[in-house]
């Protein structure tokens, strides 16, 4: 017997992807998983969850490398700014810094 109420989870699914909600209602979650696995085997894609996990790991690894590079660039920029300020202060004080 089909329920007549809609849960908050179903509303969330519908707002994310109406097609996903519709096909889950039409075929059921178990049948969709079977069809998904059948398609992956036919296309030699392997386990979809494992593939998504691997993609996620690669994504985070790449983003972490970019973050480290940005942090290094900021540190170098700050050090150059401080070094420039020190040299400027020394030159204004009359200290021979060897750039003349």
C-alpha end-to-end distance: 91 Å
Number of H/I helices: 4
Percent strand = under 5%
The total beta strand count reads 0
The major β-sheet equals: none
Counting structural domains, the number is 2
Mean pLDDT: 84
Query: Low-confidence parts lasting 5 or more residues at pLDDT below 50?
Result: none
What is the SS-derived class?
mainly alpha
SSE succession:
HHHH
C-alpha geometry: elongated
- Rg, rounded, reads 29 Å
**Helix content percent band:** over 70%
Transmembrane segments: 72-91
InterPro entries: PDDEXK-like_dom_sf
Protein name: PD-(D/E)XK nuclease superfamily protein
Keywords: Hydrolase, Membrane, Transmembrane, Transmembrane helix
What would you note in describing this structure?
GO terms for molecular function: hydrolase activity. The protein has helices at 8-16, 18-27, 29-42, 48-92. The protein is mainly alpha-helical. The chain has two domains: 7-47, no CATH class; 50-94. It is elongated. The termini are far apart. The model has no long low-confidence stretch (mean pLDDT 84).
């Amino acid at each position: 017997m089909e329920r007549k109420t809609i849960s908050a989870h179903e509303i969330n699914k519908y707002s994310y992807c109406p097609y996903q909600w519709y096909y889950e209602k039409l075929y059921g979650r178990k049948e969709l998983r079977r069809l998904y696995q059948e398609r992956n085997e036919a296309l030699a894609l392997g386990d979809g969850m494992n593939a998504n996990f691997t993609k996620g790991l690669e994504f985070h690894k790449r983003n972490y490398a970019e973050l480290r590079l940005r942090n290094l660039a900021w540190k170098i920029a700050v050090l150059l700014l401080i070094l420039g300020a020190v040299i400027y202060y020394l030159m204004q004080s009359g200290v021979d810094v060897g750039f003349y």
